[in-house]
Amino acid sequence: MSRRQSVRNWWRLGPPARDHLPAARIAAGVAAPLLTLLWLGRLDLAVFATFAAFTGIYARHEPPGARLRHQAQSALLLLTCLALGLMLSRAGASLWAVTLTGAVTAGAGALLAAVWGLRPAGALFFVFALTTAGTLPAPPSPAEAMGTAAVTAAFCLMLGHLGARYSARVRPAELASPPGPVPGPDVRWHGLRHLIAALLGGVVGMAPGVGHTAWAMVAAVAPISAQDHQGRVKRAVQRVTGTLGGLLISAALLAVPWQPWLLVVWVIALQFLAELYVVRNYSVALLFVTPLALLMAHLGHPDAASTLLWARAVETVLGALAGLVVVLLVRSPAERRAPRSGTPRGTG
Known about the structure:
This protein is mostly helical and about 350 residues long. About 70% of the residues lie in helices and about 0% in strands.
């Protein structure tokens, strides 16, 4: 296979599966709370609304009962992580404290997600929620923050249930059986990899001149959720290539002094595009996830564009390398004995 063909295969899209339907539902779950906060003049609460809206990402093709159960479980974990992060930020916790708490959250969140059979797998969103809330420079009151998060999560649960009932009625063949729990020994290694990756990512993210430790921790745990060793290695490389490509889009967007309402519109559109492609190609999805994350950060706490772009690039590379080290070194005895196979598609 030629080098050009290898590059093409790397960016090739998988077959569509009516991805626009869950993408539209998930984008609506982000749009309604953000537009409400914009109308109220409280975009300082956008972090809590956005992360709670990640409830809608889970169980995207599951039947009504399973989707409601799994989305309720994911909402519980997301709200818990936001509450812990808010406690840390209001207490003025150090980056070390946030990193250690985030690492424990990564391990525990991955364990619970595996036992409960949540999809996307892993603890990426839980770590991202806790570390982002835990490093807010001016955290809001607990009642306002967690009230916003709880209402958003409930709204996304409603959207998810209505969407599942509609799909069960008109397209029952598209609904997948919910995944079962991961066996005991495997789930322990799964949790351990997440804990070590998050901790290592947080440590390298505290290097001088970086400044957004949360992004390094997220990049470190992102590859761990893939279902086999080869898939984890591929996911780490995709995280870097997709993010670096997404930085070009981010630079163009951040170069424009958008009004707040236009920033909200961009966040909603990018959320839709990310969910449209995340199952079909992880690298392509990151072209939209990267500017989405940067615009979200800019929305709540405007920073210089160059600072955000540099931090995202450096922390993604450092975090992905940390995750790759964990993937290569922390393998269960069964994984060391098993032949390396291809990776099934997933959204983890």
